[in-house]
Amino acid sequence: MVKPNPPVSTIVCFPVKEGCSPDGHDFLLAEYHPISGFFGGFWAWETPVDGVLDKTKLYWLLNWGSYEDAMRFTIQPGFATFAQKIFHFSGIPMIYNAALTPHPPTRVFAAPIIEWVKIQLKSDTNKSSWRDSFSKFEEVLKTAPGYVAHATGWVVEEGNAFFVIIGWETIKAHRDWIANDGGEEAVQYYISGGTAESHMVHVVPGGHVTIPTSLS
Question: Which of 117, 199, 202 is nearest to 163 (CA)?
């Protein structure tokens, strides 16, 4: 369950418009300093296979002291201009907030590859029991060859959604674990415990979404 007013991360997927470039996107927030409760963030490109970047799908993960901090930014003066700059290069982005642990997920973004997953539970799933089952998956995950770190948390806006990011040394390490090293069995701990569906992509971290150090 999400505790009242926890630290959150805003997860954003930008569909980059054809013929457009998001160059400079990682410093757009610098123009709106000071931003109360903002602790920086990370960005990444989706990748279908090791060594290939899909530059039509850009991801942000922004870290906030609380959900209220994240929402406060959307009503501050200048947000409309910020949004216009986003829409210069992006279609309508997918946005939600998750109360991640650990927060911020710095170790995950130190990995070369991140497995980026949103899990939707069935409407009648007992969330506490499901989380216990997921913990069994985590125990096995931590022993996987090529595993680096992970972070998880409930999605604030959706009562039955759970967000997971897992750092890997390579996409191959993740896929080999699923295929050969017990990963498929481990996944069943939570799949069979009330999961309706999950959506997974791999991303390659590109750097920080930040404000200049001199202003922070």
Answer: 117
H/E element, 126: none
25 three-class SS: helix
Angstrom distances, CA of residue 40 to CA of 70, 182, 193, 213: 12, 36, 35, 11
Q: What is the model's pLDDT at position 2? A: 52
Q: State the architecture of 108-204 in CATH terms.
A: 2-Layer Sandwich (3.30)
SS3 22: coil
Rounded-to-integer distance, Cα 164 and Cα 151, Å: 6
Domain with CATH 3.30.70.100 in the chain: 8-104+206-215, 108-204
Residue range 102-119, pLDDT digits in tens: 999 999 999 999 999 999
pTM score of the predicted model: 0.93
Could you tell me if 167 and 114 are in contact, meaning their C-beta atoms sit under 8 angstroms apart?
Answer: yes
**DSSP strand E in 47-86: where?**
54-64
What is the rounded CA–CA span in Å between residue 73 and residue 40?
13
* CB count in 10 Å sphere of residue 64: 26
8-104+206-215: CATH class: alpha beta
d(CA 120, CA 198): 6
